[in-house]
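Researcher: I'm comparing several assemblies side by side, and this is the next one on my list. It has 898 residues spread over two chains. Same procedure as the others: predict the full complex and return the structure.
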Amino acid sequence: MADQAAAGVRGREDGREDVPINVGLLGAGTVGSQTARLLVEQGDELTNRIGRPIRLSGVACRNPSDVDYPWLDKALLTEDTEAVVRGADIAVELIGGLEPARTLVLQALNAGTSVVTANKALLAKFGPELYRAAAAHHADIYFEAAVGGAIPFIRPLRESLSGDRVDSVLGILNGTTNYILDEMTTKGLDFDVALKDAQEKGYAEADPTGDVEGIDAANKAAIVASLAFHTDIGIDDVAVEGITRITSDDIAAATAEGKVVKLLAVVENGEAGVSARVYPALIPLDHPLASVRGSFNAAFVHAEAADDLMFYGRGAGGAPTASAVVGDVVTVARHIAQGSTGQAIELYNDLPKAPLSASQAVFAVRFQICDRPGILAKISQKFADYGLSINGINQDLQPTPHDPGYSGEIQTLRLVTHHCNEVTLRECIKDICDFSFVVGEPSILRVME
Amino acid sequence: MADQAAAGVRGREDGREDVPINVGLLGAGTVGSQTARLLVEQGDELTNRIGRPIRLSGVACRNPSDVDYPWLDKALLTEDTEAVVRGADIAVELIGGLEPARTLVLQALNAGTSVVTANKALLAKFGPELYRAAAAHHADIYFEAAVGGAIPFIRPLRESLSGDRVDSVLGILNGTTNYILDEMTTKGLDFDVALKDAQEKGYAEADPTGDVEGIDAANKAAIVASLAFHTDIGIDDVAVEGITRITSDDIAAATAEGKVVKLLAVVENGEAGVSARVYPALIPLDHPLASVRGSFNAAFVHAEAADDLMFYGRGAGGAPTASAVVGDVVTVARHIAQGSTGQAIELYNDLPKAPLSASQAVFAVRFQICDRPGILAKISQKFADYGLSINGINQDLQPTPHDPGYSGEIQTLRLVTHHCNEVTLRECIKDICDFSFVVGEPSILRVME
């Protein structure tokens, strides 16, 4: 089949209405197989929408003999990724990871072949290089599925909001962590138990690091920030905190206050510059993001003129992600049929990046302490020494059994700050942790105001 | 200024990077003035995004001498709408209503001038004619602001979801009625009081008919249905019910059941064909649409592969609507700079329209009755006669004072049906209303399952 793909009629140049546009798929996993299904099953409808037929010209995967879908002609399967790229008018990269994805995508773009990809890690690391290659060779690069799965969010950001000024995007962009936090909230589970449950149900991978440590969300934050602010913001610019330290105590305290804990990807254009961060935060229950349950994703946007917007939908899964991939394929195919391309992604702003030292917020801090007289006074004094003011404090009188090494009663002390500088707060907390009455690691959560 | 507009350099043909693209505004009201502001204030940013400068070339309005905005050069103001169209590369129609909007838009399109409009009534009535004119003359017609104000929804429907099959859209697409229902729910107000409050606060017009009778939402439903199903569905195809008959009793009963009343625009592609309807419905509190509060709008989409999606934001207001208008202007300007156009809107499917007789749903029906023995038996028997089954029934023992002409005690009888045929149910209810113990008009609300 490699030869068939490589020799496929390239429909772009001649512009004849009946010449099919060749789509080459790299990857035949969950998303790849569903993408193939939509392309095949909806072929007539897609032809109507594009004005020219679309043809699956090749599918590259590691073990072609293991792939068996009723809608997929086995003759299209090959191990030869480069042949699939060469035979395509549109190369759809669904391999994931940095290599060989980067090489293959660049190979396509440098040959003027448009690319559709769902690869967030690739774009968060090498986005600007790929955007430049696409522009230089008059090829399209579309990647709706890389952020928020099925949710049409990247395109509104690139196009619909192009007459406005985006101030911030708050995203729930990782379904695994949202599912885990949701289970912890509704069932009172501890993190470890909820994670195991998510793994058993297929919502979390065997190695959940990329999800629970916030790296997946951070990749998406980098992509979103670059597009929203037209500034090169890569994965290395994103400060990341995951959810592994969230305890059922944190969740219970949040619930008691009418709040919910969500892992947020936050990109902002503030006074100190642009920033992209991932952290767990306490959100009031009446905020639209609070109702994003289970494995759903959402992006909450504030723009100067549009005010508040939210985009909501399935952030993962084969068919939903394939919906976004095929939507991009149709757009690119229309451009090919027209002999045009979409607007190139140009990161023409070089906005300063806000230093972490500029980070300001309200924080909820939880310490575990061995209860003794005078502890509250010592902690309060430390806050005063650092010029930090406390908005509320709550000492839980129930013993908590979290440190098996301590035989006495461990209690939970929880306080909420006023709006304060994050670096100062962390220094203050580090000092407090030097007190012998503090047990284990404190939890520090941002509070959405 | 009319001459200046008419004589404005037409930038399209020569493609020089420094030749501005002329934007002519028809209308200088709330949205028009904010559109002008964004075009002027964000000029440099827009130039970056388009690759060519954009220039406000003329603003037509009824009384130029009354218009005074700090960002608007008064020399651009004119009464001469046709001159503004002639001088524009992009004509932005914000006059509203059918005429002269239709004539002006056709004039533009027939001359190959692209159009951006926020005019839902125009599109719901004459959409196919305008889409054909645009395609025939290689001009764009974009109208993000016509449905859901600032929410990027039309474009995802036209583009992002073009690789999927949309089954249904449930929209809260009228902010006025959503605000009124919200006030009735949270404050226990009667419809008349809530309407008056909305008028005083500027959320409802002096003549609220178009909003409260559902006509505004119906226009939007027609536009959405046409795009979602690629089938010509006009305003005359939309069955409409407004919210004027909703009482505080209906709201209280909904609240007691954990539901909320919303005016929905519903477009569906079902077994009996495609349909577009507007009606008030009972929605469970945990549905994402239930949390759409106040004057916000949202569209909840179900597509075959993408599954559930929701788009949320401000459905009205000068700046939010202008954000959508300018987003469209930027897209069209990019096309002009590229010498291309966007994909034409082709209603290539001619799907059958589902007859009202095919409408099936669960209904909540409320009668006001003069309580006498045997009433329940008589009503139940009527339902049985029509082959309709009742899922639950509730007789309110508190006297309700809704009919001042009746001196006895009037009670409320409320029942919820099983899934049933709407026409049959309405015939049954008509029969029941012939009983002398029934007072006034019953309320019939769909229940979302």
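Model: For your comparison table: Residues 47 and 391 of chain A are 61 Å apart (CA to CA).
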